[in-house]
From TrEMBL, chain A:
Organism annotation: Spirodela intermedia (Intermediate duckweed)
Free-text function comment from the UniProt entry: Functions as a two-component phosphorelay mediators between cytokinin sensor histidine kinases and response regulators (B-type ARRs). Plays an important role in propagating cytokinin signal transduction through the multistep His-to-Asp phosphorelay. Functions as a positive regulator of the cytokinin signaling pathway. May play a regulatory role in salt and drought tolerance during plant development.
UniProt key word Cytoplasm: yes
Pfam annotation, one family: Hpt
Protein name: Histidine-containing phosphotransfer protein
TrEMBL record, chain B:
Modified residue annotations for 4-aspartylphosphate: 87
InterPro entries: ARR-like, CheY-like_superfamily, Homeodomain-like_sf, Myb_dom, Myb_dom_plants, SANT/Myb, Sig_transdc_resp-reg_receiver
BP terms from Gene Ontology: cytokinin-activated signaling pathway; phosphorelay signal transduction system
Subcellular location(s) of the protein: Nucleus
Location (main, coarse): nucleus
Protein name: Uncharacterized protein
GO CC terms of this entry: nucleus
Record flagged with keyword Iron: no
Segments forming a coiled coil: none
Bias type Polar residues, positions: 182-195
Region feature Disordered, mapped onto this chain: 158-223, 672-694
Classification of source organism: Eukaryota, Viridiplantae, Streptophyta, Embryophyta, Tracheophyta
Length: 152, 694
């Protein structure tokens, strides 16, 4: 019973993440890549994404604090963040990165600052969402159930 | 599926699971399972996901987070991969740079990927030679299909090969053989060889479709321009006059002043020329180059004979450009013969008659000395008398000579091998490795052994080789050119060795060996009616080669170095052509090369030959690419003392009579993977530099 409840909760939560644009179909692909030969695949990918993103965000923060701002360098970091967020399907982070890059292109410092805040916020959001999702998965597993497959 | 069937078996590695079967009919169901993919991306998240996606496709995946380490992996084990997927933006090396290097050195299909989907970025990827450009996030569906790039590339290479004997051939063949090294199946190797052979023959039939410029699709509609030696020489002169950096097609065209030649013709030729120089610069630093040149030229050298009438013409050309350079360039730019056997009465491609007046100003002092006589005897004006077209058709009879010579050589070489008569290349190599005179004397060669005296005639050969003119079908043509370099080298080597006594342990042997190489060509040349006898012989041999190719491979297979064996055997299969051309995997050739080079101790020949061999050894070099000096390409004239290590190697090879050939091959082979490695033990960049600078 507990498993059913958790599974339902998982599906609802995951659906909301897709619905609200935190995640996109790329995340579904990542989930589908997980199999018995690689049971922790999603967890590992999310962990990598979090590590990577935090590193990039701190580098971004440093780059933006520099005066004068090296927009090329900032842009390179944003590009990387965009790549990894796109890879994992963190759509809103990716979109924030897109806006960030156009600010970089225009050497728009104000815009960059704004976008940086936005990227950081989106990242924090998706990070907590992903952690919640993974937490639910683990609960389901511990309860002896299997994680429902999601359709976005 | 049809395309797959067309692939040479050797192209796909059976050993690693890719395994196309040897027969055309059955392509293993599991393909593309086992496709060996190297993924390069600094984004760990993406790398992880790609890794898993590719595994889901049943590919054999290797991931690498750094472009630089990916490059070294590829340089060391380039034959271990079928496909490379690389990110564009990487901190340690731009993905496009990696793409470029991979394209030049390994010729593996490379797929670029990036979150950057701007058209200009995709375009950049294409321009740099990417076979595909995936937008991140990469989807599973896209990856399921990427094997097609492997197939397509190989297929295209086959086509190119057939049509124009392009530079790519060497890579293709090399790869094929490389792959074979992971296989223990004799059949595979034989099969692939046989297939190549067959393909070439097929190519022959369609040769009027031949495209000189593979990379220029549009050129297919234009009349084919044959870059004869003279024409090419004019081109080189023009480039030299302008300076390689400032040479633009338009200016070159103006300087060349050849009616009928278009800017596009020049542009594409220039492109190839630049590529060639680029690669050569890398190759020249590696001793491996020597080997290639030796092998290639020897085979083609045979062709010289038939062309003897044209000697005068060639003479005119000979003094102006270092023979090696010419040969190398020819091999590279004119394309190698696409067919194993040359058919008499080949079609005459459209030929541009270059005006012979251009300034011939290539700095080759050494050359002048060597070839001074011939030049004196033959007024350059003479060359004008010869009609290129006539030459190709009437005199060439390339097949006969080409094959003939190789066989002769083989007989000279290792007795056991000689029995197989097929493997010119292998035998030649063996022969070259021979360090004992007796063996030479024992050989059952059909012709009298050439004496050292004959060496003096070599220059003549060179001349004839120059003759280049009408570019006959890809096959005959090329052959004519190559000989040139060979004989020259032989002559040079002989002299240098005799006069300077540079040799290491094997020097004496080498001297003798060389005359042999030169000899066949000479004989032909000297024979006014060379066509008659030699031709017949050659053809017979050629056929025999095909049949024997299998045997050859089998023979080698027993040996500890199957890959090498395959290489050696493989080329023969193709007929003489194979050896000169790219049939041999670079690595194999490389293996041989060191020995040869060392034995001769002639750095110069290495460099010069490197040019000729360059085709085959395309991958060889790239060590210290930048170090290369243009002069070296055109004329490296001094004979150098071989690096000590090299000598040692040589001795080792000679230690055991029976196993010697294999041993040396083996040594070479072992080293070949390191070719790209700056840390090459026995041939440091410094050595190269010193050699070249002289």
């Amino acid at each position: 019973m507990e498993v059913r409840r958790l599974q339902r909760q998982y599906v609802e939560f995951a659906s909301s993440l897709f619905r609200e644009g935190f995640l996109d179909e790329q995340f579904s692909q990542v989930q589908q890549l997980q199999d018995e030969t690689n049971p922790d695949f999603v967890y590992e990918v999310v962990t990598l994404f979090i590590q990577d993103s935090e590193r990039l965000l701190s580098e971004l923060a440093r780059s933006i604090d520099e005066q004068p701002v090296d927009f090329v360098k900032v842009d390179a970091h944003v590009h990387q963040l965009k790549g990894s967020s796109a890879s994992i399907g963190a759509r809103r982070v990716k979109n924030a990165c897109l806006a960030f890059r156009s600010s970089c292109d225009g050497n728009n410092f104000e815009g960059c600052l704004r976008c940086f805040q936005q990227v950081r916020n989106e990242y924090s959001l998706v990070k907590s969402k992903l952690e919640s999702l993974l937490g639910l998965e683990q609960q389901i597993m511990r309860a002896g159930g299997s994680v429902p497959t999601l359709k976005c | 599926m049809a395309a797959m069937q067309k692939l040479g078996v050797a192209n796909l590695n059976a050993g690693s699971g890719l395994g196309l079967s040897k027969t055309d009919e059955d392509v293993p169901d599991q393909f593309p399972a086992g496709l060996r993919v190297l993924v390069v991306d600094d984004d760990m998240t993406c790398l992880k996901i790609l890794d898993q996606m590719l595994r889901k496709c049943d590919y054999n995946v290797t991931v690498c987070p750094r472009a630089t380490s990916a490059l070294s992996i590829l340089r060391e084990r380039k034959s271990s991969f079928d496909l490379v997927i690389s990110d564009v933006h990487m901190p340690d090396m731009d993905g496009f740079k990696l793409l470029e290097l991979v394209g030049l050195e390994m010729d593996l299909p490379v797929i670029m990927m990036s979150a950057d989907k701007r058209t200009e970025m995709v375009m950049k990827g294409i321009k740099h030679g990417a076979c595909d450009y995936l937008i991140k996030p990469v989807r599973f569906e896209e990856l399921k299909n990427i094997w097609q790039h492997v197939v397509r590339k190989k297929w295209n290479e086959n086509k190119d090969h057939e049509q124009s004997g392009s530079v790519e051939d060497s890579d293709k063949h090399r790869r094929g053989t490389d792959d074979a090294e992971y296989t223990s199946s004799v059949n595979d190797a034989n099969d692939s060889n046989w297939k190549s052979q067959k393909k070439k023959r097929d190519a022959k039939e369609e040769e009027d479709d031949g495209e000189l410029e593979n990379d220029d699709p549009s050129s297919s509609k234009k009349p084919r321009v044959v870059w004869s030696v003279e024409l090419h020489q004019q081109f080189v002169n023009a480039v030299n006059q302008l300076g390689i950096d400032k040479a633009v097609p338009k200016r070159i065209l103006e300087l060349m002043n050849v009616p009928g030649l278009t800017r596009e013709n020049v542009a594409s030729h220039l492109q190839k020329f630049r590529l060639y120089l680029k690669r050569l610069s890398g190759v020249a630093q590696h001793q491996g180059a020597l080997h290639n040149s030796m092998c290639g030229p020897v085979d083609s050298g045979t062709k010289v004979g038939p062309l003897s009438r044209l000697d005068i013409q060639s003479l005119a050309a000979s003094g102006q450009i270092p023979p090696q350079t010419l040969a190398a360039l020819h091999a590279e730019l004119l394309g190698r013969p696409s067919t194993g056997m040359v058919l008499p009465g080949l079609e005459q491609p459209v030929i541009l008659q270059p005006s012979l007046q251009g300034p011939k100003c290539i700095p080759v002092d050494h050359r002048e000395v060597t070839f001074g006589k011939p030049l004196m005897k033959c007024p350059s004006g003479m060359s004008k008398h010869f009609q290129p077209a006539g030459i190709a058709v009437e005199d060439m009879s390339p097949s006969g000579f080409g094959s003939w010579v190789p066989s002769h050589l083989s007989s000279v070489g290792n007795p056991s091998i000689s029995g197989l008569s097929g493997p010119q290349n292998g035998n030649m190599l063996v022969q070259m490795l021979q360090q004992q005179q007796q063996q030479q004397q024992q050989q059952p060669s059909p012709l009298p052994l050439p004496s050292l005296v004959e060496a003096s005639h070599l220059p003549m050969n060179v001349q004839s080789s120059c003759l280049v003119s009408p570019s006959p079908p890809p096959t005959g043509f090329q052959i004519g050119n190559n000989p040139f370099s060979i004989s020259q080298n032989a002559a040079v080597l002989l002299r240098s060795q005799l006069s300077k006594g540079l040799q290491a342990g094997g020097a004496a042997t080498i001297c003798q060996t060389h005359p042999v190489y030169g000899a066949p060509a000479m004989d032909h040349m000297l024979l006014p009616h060379s066509n008659t006898l030699p031709l017949g012989v050659g053809q017979v041999v050629a056929e025999g080669d095909l049949k024997n190719a299998v045997m050859q491979s089998g023979y080698f297979h027993g040996s500890p170095v199957p890959p090498a064996a395959v290489a050696a055997g493989a080329s023969p299969c193709d007929g003489w052509r194979g050896s000169a051309l790219s049939m041999n995997p670079a690595s194999r050739l490389a293996g041989f090369v060191p020995n040869l080079g060392d034995a001769h101790g002639s750095a110069r020949s290495t460099a010069a030959l490197g040019g000729a061999a360059e085709l085959q050894g395309r991958n060889l070099g790239f060590v210290g690419k930048d170090t290369c000096i243009i002069p070296s390409r055109f004329a490296v004239d001094d004979v150098e003392t071989p690096p000590p290590e090299a000598l040692n190697q040589n001795k080792v090879g000679g230690a055991d009579d029976t196993g010697r050939a294999q041993q040396e091959i083996h040594l070479g082979f072992m080293e070949s993977p390191k070719v790209g490695n700056p840390g090459l033990p026995h041939f440091s960049p410094g050595d190269v530099m010193s050699v070249l600078s002289k």
